[in-house]
């Protein structure tokens, strides 16, 4: 019925309009709405949005500050009940949500369904956690929090950040990505319908300038951010410059590797690599970017991978047969093509198959054989998988070179040797290690998804830790004595 609802919505929907200045038009700088287009069919306008003005942001922050005491005094059980209500509304309106995920964000239907479910899970999860952590007196929240979310999970991360901040008692100023304001607006409406007061959750569409204004506003007491590294660094600087210094909880990108050893099952490696690299057309921070193969099995795995890539269907995400949808925008596609060209110019071999449709921002998945991890220009946010051969005896050196790239988000290990799995797990500094499985699709709840170093402010960006970071009371985990000094890396088996 969800798919039927999707097609119904697609046929019947009129382009929704985002009336951005929810707090009244700015007489000094009237907001000009611009059209939003389906990334799979760039001639199909799906709605309009206007960025929030400086005055909108200032007024919203002021309102949030005024609302802070009332929201903090709302019993935890009532806040949690509202989040459970929101989950029920997300389920009830899944047809409209799926339609927007496909048409605004270019998600395939399976990815869109998974995202609705993730948003529902986030609401229930933070409701349950808040009830369990704070059954008695509510803790002291930080105060108004800005939640700045990305276009690649425009529903799940948008709702997840809001749910965590609200559960902890903070009013939220939610800024969706400039590419995906419509789905965020619908989610905001459902959260309001669930009982969350309008002053406790305000919607501020716009681009980086809105995020910058929010981060600089003195009423803001913390920022939850998922997105690019440069944006995280800019927000960090703005927060650090403020008085008082306010916390940033950020998750950015990664140059995520899968380390395969000689004992791994080739077919499983191919299946897991394919999903990890090309699901969502590679537009996930968790996606596999660099497949590291031992010399002795590399040829066989690369051949299987090429055949499997030939089977992938690139096309309109509204079609059930499509495995990969489009990139989010013309600019995103150009960036990936530019990175591929730079690798080709360095003499790296690129295989691309199958052909992608011409209209829309589609890209055929690409396999690039590189000779050193340092060839990668950082994160390439698209359907590009680099493959690197390494000598078995040089595995420690490989791990050191991966580490030196500076990122620490996800790492896959493919091996049937338990001691090697254990050793590699101990040696790497990443937020999420996946063993003998794909390395995307973090599960809401027990997996506190987050990145280290260039990938974010740490794995405590999720799970119950996130709630403790959103209140002023001491995090009970922080009271546990620090671990003993790190022991030197054990030798590889
Ligand atoms: C992101 O892509 O910005 O585990 C983070 C996963 C997703 C990652 C979301 N939950 O693949």
From TrEMBL:
<protein>
    <recommendedName>
        <fullName>Bifunctional protein PutA</fullName>
    </recommendedName>
</protein>
<feature type="domain" description="Aldehyde dehydrogenase">
    <location>
        <begin position="36"/>
        <end position="466"/>
    </location>
</feature>
<comment type="similarity">
    <text>In the C-terminal section; belongs to the aldehyde dehydrogenase family.</text>
</comment>
<comment type="similarity">
    <text>In the N-terminal section; belongs to the proline dehydrogenase family.</text>
</comment>
<comment type="function">
    <text>Oxidizes proline to glutamate for use as a carbon and nitrogen source.</text>
</comment>
């Amino acid at each position: 019925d969800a798919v039927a609802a999707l097609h119904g919505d697609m046929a019947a929907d009129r382009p929704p309009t985002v009336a951005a200045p929810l707090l009244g038009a700015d007489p000094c700088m009237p907001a000009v709405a611009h059209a939003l287009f389906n990334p799979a069919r760039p001639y199909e306008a799906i709605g309009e949005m206007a960025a929030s003005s400086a005055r909108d942001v200032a007024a919203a922050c002021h309102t949030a500050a005024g609302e802070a005491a009332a929201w903090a005094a709302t019993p935890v059980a009532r806040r949690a009940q509202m989040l459970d209500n929101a989950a029920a509304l997300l389920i009830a309106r899944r047809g409209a949500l799926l339609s927007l995920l496909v048409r605004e964000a270019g998600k395939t239907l399976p990815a869109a369904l998974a995202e609705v479910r993730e948003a529902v899970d986030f609401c229930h999860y933070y409701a349950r956690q808040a009830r369990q952590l704070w059954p008695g007196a509510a803790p002291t929240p930080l105060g108004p929090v800005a939640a700045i979310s990305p276009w690649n999970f425009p529903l799940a991360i948008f709702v997840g950040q809001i749910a965590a901040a609200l559960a902890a008692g903070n009013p939220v100023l939610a800024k969706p990505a400039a590419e995906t304001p419509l789905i965020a607006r619908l989610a905001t409406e459902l959260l309001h319908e669930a009982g969350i007061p309008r002053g406790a959750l305000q919607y501020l569409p716009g681009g980086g300038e809105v995020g910058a204004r929010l981060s600089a506003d003195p009423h803001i007491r913390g920022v939850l951010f998922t997105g690019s590294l440069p944006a995280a660094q800019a927000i960090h600087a703005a927060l650090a410059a403020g008085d008082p210094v306010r916390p940033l909880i950020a998750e950015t990108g990664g140059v995520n590797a899968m380390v395969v050893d000689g004992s791994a099952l080739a077919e499983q490696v191919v299946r897991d690599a394919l999903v990890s690299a090309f699901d969502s057309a590679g537009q996930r921070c968790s996606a596999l970017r660099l497949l590291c193969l031992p010399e002795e099995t590399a040829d066989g795995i690369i051949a299987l991978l090429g055949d499997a890539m030939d089977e992938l269907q690139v096309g309109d995400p509204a079609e059930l047969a499509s495995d990969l949808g489009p990139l989010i925008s013309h600019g995103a596609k150009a960036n990936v093509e530019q990175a591929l060209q730079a690798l080709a110019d360095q003499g790296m071999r690129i295989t691309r198959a199958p052909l992608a449709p011409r209209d829309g921002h589609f890209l055929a998945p690409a396999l690039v054989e590189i000779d050193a991890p340092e060839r990668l220009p950082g994160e390439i946010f698209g359907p590009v998988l680099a493959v690197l051969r390494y000598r078995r005896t040089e595995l420690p050196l490989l791990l050191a070179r991966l580490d030196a790239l500076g990122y620490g988000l996800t790492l896959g290990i493919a091996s049937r040797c338990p001691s090697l799995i254990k050793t590699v797990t101990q040696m790497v500094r990443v937020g999420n290690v996946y063993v003998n499985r794909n390395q995307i699709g973090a599960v809401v709840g027990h997996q506190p998804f987050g990145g280290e170093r260039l990938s974010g402010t740490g794995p405590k960006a999720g799970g119950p830790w996130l709630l403790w970071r959103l209140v002023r009371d001491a995090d009970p985990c922080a009271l546990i004595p620090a671990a003993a000094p790190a022991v030197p890396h054990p030798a590889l088996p």
